[in-house]
Specification:
CATH architecture of the largest domain: 3-Layer(aba) Sandwich
Shape: elongated
Distance between the termini: 48 Å
Largest sheet: 4 strands, mixed
Order of helices and strands: EEEEHHHHHEEEHEHH
CATH topology of the largest domain: Endonuclease, Chain A
Structural class: alpha/beta
Helix content: 40-55%
Oligomer: single chain
């Protein structure tokens, strides 16, 4: 799930075991549930849900990592179940905070930021993941036929996703929807601009009847 292996590997051992310490190994003494383990090439390792959760709690950009993991490797439901099985373990408080943010049904951290901006501005009438033909609109105002598309990190990084986004945008325009696109930079550094553009588009739609 990471581009390269960490410098220090965490080795989980039963409580009471005292293997010889090594500089490149961090020992954790605890008992893991069977549901959190999987055997890979003869070695027992943590399964994807717990691995994603504990890595997100450990790396600096945990929300970015968890966003990518939920999109590419494991479902939210499985990660949440792993979290429940490991309440009280090291890093579980930070993991819980990351899961609360991820539970907002938005597909990426950038979309979650957009949702927070809309709520802070008191803008209502929007829907997350609104169906449109074979596509889903990131954030839609169906009554105003206004589509908001968010260009986040991992979810919008691949060539296939880029092409799909453009095809979806063309289909929206042909169907006479207004389309606004915002980047992570817009959401993080220019929330006033985002709110202003959305309000202007909604006002224009209301004026047009």
């Amino acid at each position: 799930m990471l581009p390269e292996a960490p410098d220090v590997v965490e080795l989980t051992v039963p409580r009471g075991d005292c293997p010889r310490p090594r500089p490149e190994v961090c020992l954790r003494r605890r008992v893991l549930a069977t549901g959190d383990l999987v055997r890979v090439r003869g070695v027992w390792v943590t399964d994807k849900p717990l691995t994603a959760l504990e890595t997100a709690a450990a790396v600096p950009d945990g929300s970015v990592f968890l966003d990518r993991a939920l999109q590419r490797h494991v479902s939210f439901t499985r990660v949440y179940r792993a979290y429940c099985r490991n309440l009280g373990a090291r890093g579980s408080a930070r993991a819980g905070a990351l899961l609360v943010a991820a539970a907002d049904r938005a597909d990426s951290a950038a979309e979650r930021r957009a949702v927070a901006i809309l709520r802070e501005a008191g803008i209502t009438g929007w829907v997350l993941g609104h169906p449109f033909g074979r596509y889903l609109i990131d954030i839609a105002f169906p009554g105003a036929k206004l589509a908001i598309e968010i260009d986040g990190w991992a979810w919008h990084m691949g060539v296939d996703r880029f092409r799909t986004d453009r095809h979806k945008g063309n289909a929206l325009v042909r169907a006479r929807w207004d389309l606004l696109r915002f980047t992570w930079h817009d959401l993080r550094n220019r929330p006033g601009y985002v709110v202003g553009e959305i309000r202007a588009a909604l006002s224009a739609a209301a004026a047009a009847g």
